[in-house]
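Thought: the user asked what Sugar phosphate transporter domain-containing protein looks like in 3D. I have the sequence; next I should run the structure tool and report back without guessing.
Action: structure_tool
Action Input:
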Amino acid sequence: MGVGGEKFQLGTVGALSLSVVSSVSIVICNKALMSSLGFNFATTLTSWHLLVTFCSLHVALWMKFFEHKPFDSRTVMGFGVLNGISIGLLNLSLGFNSVGFYQMTKLAIIPCTVILETLFFRKKFSRSIQMSLSVLLLGVGVATVTDLQLNAVGSILSLLAIITTCIAQIMTNTIQKKFKVSSTQLLYQSCPYQSLTLFLIGPFLDCFLTNQNVFAFNYTSQVVFFIVLSCLISVSVNFSTFLVIGKTSPVTYQVLGHLKTCLVLTFGYVLLHDPFSWRNILGILIAVVGMVLYSYFCTVETQQKNAEVSPQQVKESEAVPLISDSLSKVENGGGVADDEPLKVPMWSSKYSRE
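Observation:
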């Protein structure tokens, strides 16, 4: 493997590590903010996250840390609004469904992404990859899914949340490669639209779900401290999300999200003494096996492609494992969470995407 491949490998591992550390950190921070301090306005908080992210990137642009590269404005606007809507739908899904059903909604994102990429992008997933993803989903399901209370409105919202989330994450990868923009450039241009969308719907959505007014909340110094800390961490979360999807694929990002879920569960048990059962332990072990298999099979397939196809085709390859010893070189580029579900709306980042 050449110098370019080694740099790409280090960059990918760095992006994955940054995503894990920042996402787990923001979950811990938000758990303190929401569970301990009662600030349950997840959608509004996410709009503040995106606003702070945009301001941070604007300062970075002014300091010439990256170059502004404008492209199709309608694409950027549609992408930003879609991301904002997907976060709102995920929060509504949690509001109308049980935590167990919400976890099933998150699990369904991976197979839905695979189906969409197969139908519209003709991307092929081998049986080995499909098997490893099935093992992963089984493990996460065993570890996190508890009750499954179904209702018509909640089911429709969950379906819409799954579809919009999958499309938004696929668009993140596709836009970066089509317009040859980095994760930073795409995030900088789409942040205002995402933030504005959530800022407009956030207070109403949060009031509907919590029966509380975000503007009438008692903002003590402790609450303000955790809000500011959460916003600062979110800059890293949002940047690493776009970076991971751009460097790997939407499916790999979802696999990484489930790894973060397992880490958050483990952290809660070890340091916070959260309730933990044999089912949680068994599920985490199964999920880890699935992630290891996914990484191994991606590595094997990447090595086979490197040996069989031309250098130009290798450049365009998207089969990137979580951790690999040999990775193909792709175009430079860099998505809202998905971690431990609280009993209040969370995001995917998205979160929940976090």
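Thought: the tool returned a structure. Summarizing for the user.
Final Answer: Structure for Sugar phosphate transporter domain-containing protein predicted. The longest helix spans residues 3-36. Confidence is low (pLDDT under 50) at residues 316-354.
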